[in-house]
Design a protein that fits this description.
The complex is a heterodimer of chains A (about 280) and B (about 270). Chain A has 13 helices and no strands. Chain A is mainly alpha-helical. Chain B is about 70% helix and about 0% strand. Chain B is built from eleven helices and no strands. Chain B has about 270 residues and is mainly alpha-helical. The radius of gyration of chain B is 25 Å and the shape is elongated. The N and C termini of chain B lie far apart (about 75 Å). In chain B, helix 2 packs parallel to helix 4 and helix 5 runs antiparallel to helix 6. The chains are: A mainly alpha (about 280), B mainly alpha (about 270). Chains A and B meet through helix 2, helix 3, helix 4, helix 6 and helix 7 of A and helix 1, helix 2, helix 3, helix 5 and helix 6 of B.
Chain lengths: ~280, ~270
């Protein structure tokens, strides 16, 4: 499967819009266009295979389901995963003749996405460093009271950083990478150690994504109870995610009521107008 | 009595909505987004160029928080700046103190509630709808997330503007904590379901007696290996303080050894 220049250019623009200091705005750029699930649809439309795009995007999404960037520290950057990783994974899956709907194809996509994700970190710091130049212009503008220039500094000039650090790498890598699949096929047999490991790694990686998320809410083993409640609903009872979410909401409502009751109790117990008569009746 | 027009507030909100992180650098994360968002406010409140400069100077300080929930701080400072322009006892230093004091707590709430819980729930449902390459999941996420954030952020901005410093209570009060707690509960349950539906770890090991180990494990608890791997990764990151990237590398080594030992085998051919 080939990616032509026109397709690569659109992928490059999407990469600019969705990268961490999102040019599409954080909410729509980074948190919408940049999510692999959405990128799967977008890349699928660009490459003309929506179905494969979505299956691949969804498989990669699980690893990056909790991509929190506290204080601007990144472990992976969405632009590379979504707009370099997904197109390459689609090419690889199709080039190897895998059925996209199989666990194997999804493992392949996960491994490729993660490999490209580390490249994203480099691109992220490149963009952020280059933006220092525009910010320098901004400080001078503030000092002189030339405030209109601030809009240019915040919204116009960063495009230059992104053309260099998002657009060009995306165009070059997606165009070159598409042809790599044939070379891989020629030199790396599917039943060799390298490919077997690659696919196995891909099947293990989604566990890291879920674990990153759990790290924020689970601090001791007992906190795993709610997690394994959901796990069991899906694994043993075969419920889908919407059903699990509804059951989750039911318990959340109960939990909310209990907490509110408890806080009311402590509030009235310490309150000055505490009525002792009630207790005597009992 | 100076009063900010609705038009100016909307312009300030839109500028923040789009530009909060567009000129990101490690040194001044959201500072320029903030400066741009306050510019319409400052320009309307002060006619004198020197006073404008003085007011803008307040917002040159470092600012970084979770941008969605942080909208409330921008709205609040618009309200405080208005009060300051009306000669109420508040100055740039006080505004900056409030700003700096809110950055951390709001980032904590925003990162755990929005990025760490709301997004994973929405993505989880989206993944559930994507079976077989169905675009419905992605469309669901795009529509629901953006609608929630557009109206939520607008609400936060104007609520912040109205309440000024008191706005914080809405976010850190007792009831807010109970709601947060409960939403995290939904999030964890959904994540369990996501893990069971999307992690497929199988072993190809054949037991000495001739049976497959995978079948034996499925008989005990389906998807057992996937569950164990998640707990293992969590343990490495939380108890051993190993970074996610290192955990991924470790998994690569485990995969390599597992393949050599015959524990893992995807069983593919071109």
């Amino acid at each position: 499967m080939e990616i032509n220049l026109f397709q690569a250019i659109i992928l490059g623009i999407c990469a600019c819009l969705s990268s961490m200091p999102g040019l599409g705005g954080t909410t729509f750029g980074n948190y919408t266009l940049g999510r692999p699930l959405v990128a799967g649809l977008v890349v699928g439309l660009i490459l003309g295979d929506v179905k494969t795009g979505i299956i691949i995007g969804a498989a990669i999404q699980v690893i990056y389901i909790a991509l929190v960037t506290p204080g601007g520290t990144v472990s992976a950057d969405v632009r590379a995963i979504s707009y370099i990783g997904i197109p390459l994974a689609i090419c690889a899956v199709k080039g190897m003749g895998l059925d996209p709907n199989t666990a194997q194809a999804q493992s392949m996509a996960a491994a490729l996405g993660a490999a490209v994700g580390t490249l994203g970190t480099v691109l992220f710091y490149g963009t952020a460093t280059m933006n220092l130049i525009w910010q320098h212009i901004g400080w001078k503008a503030v000092e002189k009271g030339d405030f209109k220039k601030l809009y240019l500094v915040d919204m116009g000039l960063p495009w230059i950083s992104h053309i260099i650090c998002s657009f060009l790498p995306t165009v070059i890598i997606t165009m070159a990478g598409a042809g790599m699949v044939d070379i891989m096929k020629a030199y790396l047999p599917m039943d060799g150690i390298a490919m077997k490991t690659l696919f196995t790694v891909g099947s293990l990686l989604p566990a890291v994504g879920i674990a990153i998320l759990l790290k924020q809410v689970v601090t001791k083993m007992i906190d795993f109870v709610t997690f394994f409640f959901g796990f069991t609903l899906a694994a043993c009872l075969g419920l889908n995610l919407i059903a699990a979410a509804i059951i989750g909401s039911f318990f959340a409502v109960i939990n909310y009521k209990i907490i509110m009751l408890q806080s009311k109790k402590t509030a009235s117990a310490s309150g000055p107008d505490n009525n002792d008569d009630d207790e005597e009746d009992i | 009595m100076k009063k900010l027009s609705r038009k100016t507030l909307n312009k300030s909100f839109l500028t923040w909505f789009y530009g909060n992180l567009t000129c990101f650098s490690q040194e001044h994360m959201q500072t320029f987004g903030y400066l741009c968002a306050m510019l319409p406010v400052v320009e309307e409140l002060y006619d004198d160029k020197e006073k404008q400069k003085e007011a803008m100077h307040t917002y040159t300080a470092f600012f970084n928080t979770e941008p969605q929930i942080g909208t409330m701080v921008v709205g609040m400072t618009a309200g405080l700046e208005e009060a300051k322009a009306n000669n109420q006892p508040i100055d740039g230093e006080a505004i900056n103190g409030i700003r700096a004091g809110l950055m951390g707590p709001l980032a904590g709430i925003g990162d755990s509630m929005i990025v760490g819980t709301l997004i994973p729930i929405l993505l989880g449902i989206g993944l559930g709808l994507s079976g077989g390459g169905n675009p419905l999941g992605a469309i669901f996420y795009i529509v629901v997330w953006n609608a929630l954030m557009w109206f939520g952020m607008k609400f936060a901005y104007f609520k912040g503007y109205e309440l000024g410093g008191k706005a914080v209570e809405i976010l850190v009060g007792e009831q807010a904590k109970a709601i947060r707690d409960s939403i995290i509960m939904i999030g964890t349950i959904v994540m369990g379901a996501v893990a069971a539906s999307w992690i497929n770890i199988h072993t190809s090991l054949v037991l000495p007696g001739g049976g497959h180990l995978q079948k034996t494990l499925d008989g005990i608890y389906p998807k057992m290996l996937s569950g164990i791997t998640v707990v293992f990764c969590w343990w490495l990151m939380t108890k051993k303080n190993i970074s996610p990237t290192m955990v991924m590398l470790l998994l690569a080594i485990i995969a390599f050894v597992g393949v050599l030992a015959g524990f893992f085998n995807p069983g593919l051919s071109y």
